Structure formats: C-alpha cells, structure tokens
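[User] Could I get a sequence and structure tokens?

[Assistant]
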Amino acid sequence: MEILENKHIEDIKPTFSQDAIGFHQQLPGYTPTPLIDWPVYASQHHFKNLCIKDESQRFGLKAFKSLGGSYAMFRILCKRNYLNPKTTSFDQLRSMDHHDVTFVCATDGNHGHGVSWAASLFGCAAYILMPKGSSEARRKRMERKNVQAVITDLSYDQAVQKASDLAQENHWILIQDTAWEGYTQIPTWIIEGYLTMAQEIIHQMTTPPTHIFLQAGVGAMAGGMIDAFSRVYPTTQFIIVESAGAPCLYASMNQGKRTSIACEPTIMAGLNCGTPCLITWPIIQKRANYFCVCEDDAAIRGMHVLKTNDMVAGESSAVTMGLLDRIVKSETLRNQFQMHEDASILLINTEGDTDPFFYQSVVGEDRCLII
C-alpha cells in the first residue's frame, strides 16, 4: 500500500448543480438507498461510528452508476427536443418518440449497465464497448432490446476513444462518464446525477463524518462527492482509494498535474482507468486529504469483512472497507490518518455482486479469509 498526504488543502467553490434528485424521484422504483450503521465494528475497533451507504440496492441494478447515466440522458433528450429540464417531467419526455437516438459509451460494466437501463426507459438505442478482459456476466446484463454490448481487445482509455470515434462516424451521442478537453457538458450532467447519492446521505446522516473514503477510477464520482460534501462538512477528511493497477490520481498528485498512466491487470475493473477526469481533477487536487493505492488483496479483504455484516460488495467497492480494516488495526496508520476514538467514518458501497460468479469465487461458502 502507498499513501500520499495532501499538505496543501484549499477551499473549493461549488462546481456542480444538485437538482438531479428531483428527476430521479420521478423514476419507477426510486427510493433512497439505505445508510447502514455498523456500531459493532466501530466498537470493536474503538472509534465512534461507521456508516455505509449501500448502492447495491439502487434501482435493482446493483450499482450507483445509473444515477449519472439516466440524468445525463434526460438532459440530452431535453436539449435535443428544445425542452426546459426544470419544467419537463420524466413522463412527458418518455412519452415522446426517441427511437432514432443511439447512445454510445465505453464501460467496464456499471456505467454501461446504467446507460442500457436508461435507454430502455426512454425508448432509445445504445451501443456499449467494454475493454479487454471484461466480465461476460457484466456484458450480458447490459443487453436489452435495441442495446448491444461488446467486449473489445482495447484498454479502457482506448475503448473510450473508440466510442468517441463511433459517435462521430455514425451520428450517435457519446455519453461517457469522464471528461477531456472539448467534452465536458455530458460528463458534468453525469456527475450531477451522482449527487443524488450525496443528497440522500446528507439527509440520512445524524453525525457529520470526520472521514469519508472514496474509491476512484477517473475520479468523477469521488470529485463529485467531495464537491457536494464540502459544502456541509467543511472539516471532513477525504481519502481517495485507488487500485495499484491504475493509480492515475495518485500519479497526478505526485506530478502536480493531471497525468495519464498505463494500466496493469487488477480485479478492480471499475477502478482500472488511466486518465483522471478533467472536470473533477481540480477538486480532488485541492480538497482530497489522502491518496491511497491498494493491491487486490485489500478489495478481497473488504468483500469478506462486509459479508460479515450481511452486505454484498463488489471488488471495486469493497477496497475502501479493506483499507479501513487495515488502518484501524494499526496504531501507526490510525495516527497517520488522525482516526481516533471520536472518528465518524463514511463508506459508500458503490456496487454489489455485479459479477455474481466472481463474487462467489471470492466469498463463497468454501472460501475464508485469514486476517
């Protein structure tokens, strides 16, 4: 594990709108996902409390990403039809004919699944590219009427570029969950969709968190959460957690600028991204307190620990629990992260068993973890 402390924390100005929750509340099956208190774990490890937002229950899709894809699609279709998103309802937009609209994106799984689901709600088509080594189980979950998902022989960053090229060639709409020069509006809407999760957490929390752990690939979700939480929790410490296979935020922080890196194999497919999101990197650079790089064993540890609390967590989500479990068992690390007896910790379980076969291979009945 590698740890980098940001010793130059700066205040940030709000970047993203928090209006998306009004749209999400209109969707079929919407209900706030639970914020689960785990007092036993906190007591055992001598800190105040641990809360975990469980996004494995979001819209029956097992991941938070549907919040971003659905809201961005709503905003895109409103703009395409010259409608005011503040006065247009989901039912109004769904009643219109969008059969000639095709969305395209690259994904390791969860973003594509959210785009597929949203396309089915609005009656659109979608074409989804997955990087080399992606899970066949995740690919199959995306396929619906008028939605095609394919596993390519490309890296994640190459798949993003390919999706962009296909959008231009075929007059499709690129709906990608990261941003770069010349492509920022749609990723902004996606991140604003994620902030529904933050709004729910703020309403559900009874104690301001002292530490928030945020897993990160390109950093879109992490940066959005920091933007939202900093408005109400100005003294909270934010801990960015990345896979050792693709620590692009850690590398960027080390270099003092947004930096692309080559990705290495990791079980944390959702975090295996080599280039930070353009619009959230400045937020993370200024306001994240720590950058932690974890090996796959941290994700496996987290999956097992959360299972003891009857929580199903996928590998890209559980790494934060694995890191926390290591910190609280080390006096040196606890002191480094200022995690004392008054600590109130928030984790976000961003995905459940989106690949059930892999999940069972890690935490099935015949598997155990030696702590």
Q: What stands out?
A: Residues 185-204 form the longest helix (20 residues). The chain is about 40% helix and 15% strand. The chain has a mean pLDDT of 96.
